[in-house]
Amino acid sequence: MIVVLKRTRFEELAGEGRGNRGKDVSQGSSVAAQKETKPEPSVCRKDAGSQPKQPDLGPDTRDLLLQLVQTQQQQTKLLQKLLVTQQEFSEEFHQKVAEDRELRAAEEARKVENATEMEELKQSQNERRMEKARQKDVELTLAVGRFNICTNVKDWTHCVNILEWCLDSDGLPFVQLQDLKTDSTPLYTAAKHGYRALLAILLQHGLNVNLRVDAFNTTLLHIAVDYNQISVVNLLLEHRADVNVTDSNGDSVLFWAAKNGNLEMVELLVHQGADVNALDIQGCSILHYCASNGNLPLVQFLIEHGAENKPVIINDGLGGTHYNVLPLNLAIRKKQRAVVDYLSSLNNF
C-alpha cells in the first residue's frame, strides 16, 4: 500500500517537471528525490493490526518512573498498615468502653443491693449462731432461773453476759449490745439494729414485751418501728406487744411510723389493730400529721381505713391554741396541693 502511494506521488512530481519546461531537468529530479524522502502525510491509514510506536525514553526517565512506582507502592502498604492499626485501636477502644460500662453497672447494682445483701447475710449468720445457742438452751434456762434477773432493766447487761457465757465466742454480737457509753440500754440497741434472735431468747425467758427502754418511755416496739426493723416488729407483735402504747409525748407507734412516712409499717400496724384516730398530747391526729407533711399515699390509706375528719384543738407548745383545725386546713397552710385536692374531693371534707 505504501509503495503504490509513493509511485503515484512520484509520477505527479514527474508530470509537474514536464510541465515546467524552462526548468532544469536535473533540478526536477533532485526535487522529486527530495519529495520522495519526506515523511508520509497523515492521510496514510494504518493497518488494523499495527501498534502505536512507543516513545524512546532515556535511562534517567525510566529510573525516575521506577522510583515513583516504588514510592507509590510503599505509600500504599503504609496506608494499609495505618488502616489496620486504626481498626485495632477502634476495637480496643469500644471494648474498653463496654468494660467500663459493665463495671459501672455492676458497681451501681452492688450499691443498690448492698443493704439487702448485708441484712440477708446478718440474718443467715444469726440463724446459724442461734442453732448453736439452742444446743445450750438447758444451761441458759438454768442460769436465767438461778439469777432471776430478767425483770430489771438495769440488769440487762448481766443477762447478756449469761447469754454470751452460754453461747460460743463467735455467737451473737454481744459486744455492741453491752456498749453502755450512751444512755440507751442493751434492749434499745437490740431493737434498733434488729437483733431478733437475741430478743427472741429474752422474750422466751420472761422479758416484758412492753418494757420501757429509755427516759422517754419508749418501748421496744417504738424503737423497732422507728428504725424499720420489720422482723423485730413482727416478733414483738407475736408476743402480744401493745400496738397502741404511747411514749411521753403521747405518740403511739403508729404516729412514729406515719411521721417517718413509712407506708409499709403503717399498713402492718393498722392491720394489727392500731388506732388510726389516736391523738397526741398536742391534740393532733395521725391524719393531721400526714396532711401537713403532704404524704398523699398515707392520707389515702388512713381515710380508707377509718380516719375521721375531726376538727381538733391544737396546742402548739408555745402557748398558742388553735381551734377547729381540720387536716385540710393544715394541708392548705403548708401548700400541699395534692393533699388539698384529694381532701377537697371528698364529700365529708
From TrEMBL:
Biased composition regions of type Basic and acidic residues, renumbered to the chain: 35-48
Region ranges (Disordered): 13-60
Membrane-spanning residues: none
Keywords (A to Z) from UniProt: ANK repeat
Name of the protein: Uncharacterized protein
PROSITE patterns: ANK_REP_REGION, ANK_REPEAT
Alphabetized InterPro entries for the sequence: Ankyrin_rpt, Ankyrin_rpt-contain_sf
ANK repeat copies, ranges: 182-214, 216-248, 249-281, 282-308
